[in-house]
Amino acid sequence: MASKKPKASAKASRKTPARRVAAKAVKPARAAAKSPASKAAKPVLLSGGNPQIAKGYGDAPVQAYIAAMPGWKRDLGRRLDAVIVRAVPGVKKAVKWNSPFYGVEESVWFLSLHVFERYVKVTFFRGASLRPQPIGKSKYPDVRYYDIHEGKFDEIQFAAWVKQASQLPGERM
Fold first, then answer.
1. What's the rounded Cα separation, in Å, for the pair 102 and 162?
2. Domain containing 128 — which CATH number?
3. How far is CA 89 from each of CA 9, 105, 120, 133, 164, rounded to the nearest angstrom?
4. pLDDT confidence of residue 30
5. What pTM does this model have?
6. Alpha-carbon span 26 to 30, nearest angstrom
7. Residue 131 maps to a domain
8. What 3-state class would DSSP assign to 98?
9. 61 or 13: which carries more pLDDT confidence?
10. 98: domain range?
11. For 58, which DSSP code?
12. CA distances (Å), 95 to each of 15, 28, 66, 140, in order?
């Protein structure tokens, strides 16, 4: 009696070597279509909602940071930036340590912004010299903070502080 040859499974018979190669070639294309780079990239938010933006100098990185601020903080970021630009014509800008910095000369800064879960913190590096002083104290004697919660922005006082801060010696960083 002749032994019967085992039948190849239906699945194996369909996967010819040419089909296997073609299937492998399609997989990377499908993976690329699903990759985050192919979609509009969402900004990476760090602890508390602070945007992760690459270090850079000039207006573009600061605008990228503001655009990545979550929720109501984005509109506040635009307002803060507009007030600073109006109060200090020719202001220098940079993003360092995931925070926008503002100064009157390169690498000499008078304030920075940072996003937290419930508020935006403005740091005045020589804030102890401002009149009236912002109420947020720091472990550093010269530094004062202005924490802005939703709907609690005093634009007139902020503009006055920005003008004063820009005329004080800045912090070299």
1. 10
2. 3.90.1150.200
3. 77, 12, 23, 23, 13
4. 42
5. 0.73
6. 6
7. yes
8. coil
9. 61
10. 50-172
11. S
12. 54, 36, 11, 22
